[in-house]
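Next up, sample data.

:::
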Amino acid sequence: MAKVELKQPVVQAIVNDIEGAQSIVLVDYRGLTVAEDTALRKQLREAGVVYKVCKNTMMKRAFEGTDFAQLDEYLDGPNAIAISKDDATAPARILAKFAKDAKALELKAGVVEGQKYDAAALAELAKIPSREELLSRLLGSMQSPITNLARVLNQIAEKGGAAECTPATEEAPAEAAAETPATEE
């Protein structure tokens, strides 16, 4: 078998992974310990992010004709790619957070929804919360006024209910006193 025939399945596997991807982040993983690498892979897997260490030539071939070809200039030295099809900011967010503790991990560049970002821009992009978190914040802000209105109405009902009970008990003895003189006469 020729070398090209052996490499074709590897390139095809990368193409399959990047097909329909919203984002790809390229990192230099040199210097990570096995424990750090295992922890990183676990975090990425839990977020639905594919993380692979691939040869640069294989990635270049896989990126040809896609938005991810913008990363070709960063493909030097050992690289790993993190690919997300669901959450566009997940790879950048997880890798940037992990890089704070593991100084050996270096963000190189990424393409998020067709736009190329360098390492500094990826760090800023990583500050954006996940879609689920943004939706929960939106829902919370929408529910807050309704919840506050319900509390106010409940307090008014409790105070109003207590006020109605108090006059009713005061009127009852007055009626009883009015009835008592009528029976005496």
